[in-house]
Amino acid sequence: MQSFAKDEKRWSGELVELMCCMDERDKVQKKTFTKWINQHLMKVRKHVNDLYEDLRDGHNLISLLEVLSGDTLPRERDFLKTLRLVSSTEACAYEQHEDVEDEDKGPREKGRMRFHRLQNVQIALDYLKKRQVKLVNIRNDDITDGNPKLTLGLIWTIILHFQLPKEKAVYNVPPNRSKISDIHVTGESEDMSAKERLLLWSQQTTEGYAGIHCENFTTCWRDGRLFNAIIHKYRPDLIDMNTVAVQSNLANLEHAFFVAEKLGVARLLDPEDVDVSSPDEKSVITYVSSLYDAFPKVPEGGEGISANDVEVKWVEYQNMVNYLMQWIRHHVTIMSDRTFPNNPVEMKALYNQYLQFKETEIPPKETDKLKIERLYELLEVWIEFGRIKLPQGYHPNDIEKEWGKLIIAMLEREKTLRPEVEWLEMLQQIANRIQRDSRSCEDKLILARNALQADTKRLESGLQFQHEAEIAGYLLESENLLRQQVIDAQILIDGKYYQADQLVQRVAKLRDELMAMRTEFSSLYSKGHTLTTEQTKLMISGITESLNSGFTTNLTPELNAAMTQGLTPSLTSSSLTSGLSSGLTSRLTPAMTPAYTPGMPPQLIQSYVTGVDGGTLQTLKHMQIRKPLMKSAFVDQNLTEEEVNMKFVQDLLNWVEEMQVQLDRVEWGSDLPSVESHLENHKNVHKAIEEFESSLKEAKISEVWRHIPHFLS
């Protein structure tokens, strides 16, 4: 009996000690759960002071579930009206008894009678059952009556369902583990699968930290090193593990809770609640689950960056951004350069280089830009968490701004390059035309030179010329080609074409050759057109005979034969030189010229004869001056504008040559009477020159209008 008494006493002592320990744990749980509830209720501006009392009416419990789930739950009056459990009159009657105490010995308030309280708590319990949370032995009256154990059990059930991690695959949790929705709670009962999941997360997070082991949620957390290690894993800049290794338990716990609070984790525990021989497991689990909830994590089935890979991915992101930004800025500088070559080949190569850059280099860099944006999305959670400090200029928006500058610079460069290429291509075509026309002109001058040499030999042999008309045609064609080359050369000079100087020198050389050829042509054929002494005597005798017979008799056949032998076909043209007039006698008059040969125009025979009556002499004194024609005289519907202009300009050139010949041959008199007799000729010459100036202005205007479309293009 004595032994039994001792055992009973010992058992009683242990039971008392156990009850005290349980009471102490309940106090810690109550404090922890109250803080956990308040951190959520503060979002709807509500607060719980006493966990057991402030959940009895069901209002705070419903508000807590609404905050955690995001759903809207009915309240007691809406619920009653919907189910028609009481009439509106009865509901109003309840509300009128505000000053009457109910059986709970508390004042009645709107919607807070016992019946309303039970209904509100039942609404919360039914909602949990709807979410497949199985509640065992927890009834609405247990919460309404403020049962401490069952109230703590209900809150623990809610914590397990809403707070503990659900992403099993992220931490290599076997797929056959129970889900949170499969938790079975009976008051203080705990769900091991949820606890194991959180324990596995804690173990993986603190893996590799020397001297730190996570085997449970009680004694392993007492010294505070586990809390600090978890925080250090996510924010190594905030925790110094060397200091943690030498600090006291309370100092470590206080530092961990202080830092975690800065990171958004509510201080659910106090250091003295954990630094005990056996910390409350549920309180520790609740706090650790808050850490898990606040820290970044890889989403289930999605992409993410774990805490171990943050630094590696951040360095990779920085390198990608640095390289792309340098590449963009380098090419913005290149695209902004407006120093272009004047060589069409080099310019075309530059334009092709731009097109190749646009087609082959831009797409890969766009892909790199998208990779940077995607990597930033994965790092963004760590940037917001504070693990990464994003420097200025490293945001994807900053890259997009620089990219936009590059695109604008490219568009502006293409807008500038394309007209430059087209302009240089046009100049190249003009240069090619000059080269082609120059070769053609050189060929014609060679042919003219050969023909001229042939006629020179014939002249030396006393034979008749054969190539005068042919040579004149070559010279005329060469002159027309040269005029166009001069215009084209000026365009090349104005356009700063890179071979303009060489082409101008070639055109100038052709011009000199053409002028020399014309001089030789005039010299040769002026000699060939001079009449011999015998031919002159025959012409004088024929003219005298014609004068004596009253101009009714033509020249003799012998004279015609002599003229045919001595005069080439060019003698009849307007280019007859002064050598012809020097071989004629001074007695030849214009009135006689139709009689001696039909091939010689009267206006080219400039001689005077005595014994003619006064009217004939007056006619002789006046020069036969042809007025220059205006452009309108050449307008023909069968001719193009270019052909009309060419005929117009050619007529002006012919007029100048004719006037030069006449002015060289005319006699202006040797005394006052003879000078006065030629005064009319002076007036006619001046009048003709004035008219020529008008025609020349018209020709210049036509030339300007002809080139305006060319320059505009």
Automatic annotation (TrEMBL):
It comes from the Eukaryota. GO terms for cellular component: cytoplasm; focal adhesion; hemidesmosome; intermediate filament; membrane. It holds the Pfam family CH. GO terms for molecular function: actin binding; microtubule binding; structural molecule activity. CDD domains: CH_DYST_rpt2. Keywords: Actin-binding, Repeat. One of its GO terms (biological process) is wound healing. This is Calponin-homology (CH) domain-containing protein. The lineage of its organism: Eukaryota, Metazoa, Chordata, Craniata, Vertebrata.
